[in-house]
Amino acid sequence: MAPRTDTAPAPKTRRRVLEGARTFASRKRTREIGLVWLFLAPSLAIFTIYRIVPLIWNGVLSFQFWSPYKPAEFAGLYHYEEMLFYDEAFWETLWNTLIFMASAPVGIALALGVALLVDTPIRGRNTYRTIVFMSYPVMTVAVGIIWQWLFNEKVGLINYVLISLGVIDQGIPFLESFTFALPAVIVASIWQVIGFYMIILLTGLQSIPPSLYEAAAIDGAGAVQRFRRITLPLIRPSLFLCFVVGIINSFTAFDLIFVMTGGGPGHATDLLVTYIYSTAFRLSKFDYAAAITVVNFLLFVALAFLANRLAGGEAGAVKPGG
């Protein structure tokens, strides 16, 4: 009888092979992670130095009496107390910021109308898309100069047209008026960003399968019902992104305000960001400006979180495999 040959490894040998394979996979994974961190290190270092460190230092500065000419002293909540209870300009600029932010839905609604229009198979729609989008790449300083001329009391195009049509007898000082200055800046801001909103919303519209509209039309749904039941729910992430951009714009519209009005007249067009600049570099109250910056940052985070919750909690999230 021939001897039996068993090629299967012994249990101890099989265990050693498995342990060796795990060790090799673990070492490979460690090397890969180390390589990733090596490539990320320069970017993370720059981000830490120019973002994280200034943010932390700003928070520390807000609790100090600080000046470039004398040592820092602990101030506790003094600056926050002054801001909340004694600084009327802070509340005025906060209100202006909220009004500026509330104008974002107006721009988004206009952009959605334009996106719906250029998404239809009309002649020359690519040209229309380009014309609408051209306002966004223009430098904000240039936008401010253009609209400063348009709103000019004596030589502005808007006043010229209104006088020519007999609507008014003399020019309106839009940018020097406590009533019209902030709306004028908001109009300029919407005009600049509406093209960007349109591109975002147009991308969302084109991602909707046409079969959904066809099925809804067969079931007897009208255009309004299709818009409410199909279009709006499916472009919700795009709407959320536009709203976040609007929030960011209301907290960073420094250059437009600075060029058009400089924050005036008085504090009529001052936003928190321009008030922070004026407090720090015109009044040299860097510690107080740091406290306002902390409030500005917390307000921004709170509003972004609230917008995300209202949008469903996962708006803008990237799903694996999606």
Can you describe what's shown?
It is a single chain. The protein is mostly helical and 322 residues long. The chain has a domain at 106-266: Orthogonal Bundle (MetI-like fold). 70% of the residues lie in helices and 3% in strands. The chain contains 14 helices and 2 strands. It has helices spanning 11-61, 78-85, 88-102, 104-119, 125-133, 140-150, 157-164, 181-206, 210-218, 223-234, 236-252, 254-260, 272-282, 286-310, and strands at 64-67, 70-74. A two-stranded antiparallel sheet has the order 1-2. α3 packs antiparallel against α11. The longest helix is centred in the first third of the chain and has 51 residues, at 11-61. The N and C termini lie far apart (62 Å). 24% of the residues are buried. The model has no long low-confidence stretch (mean pLDDT 85).
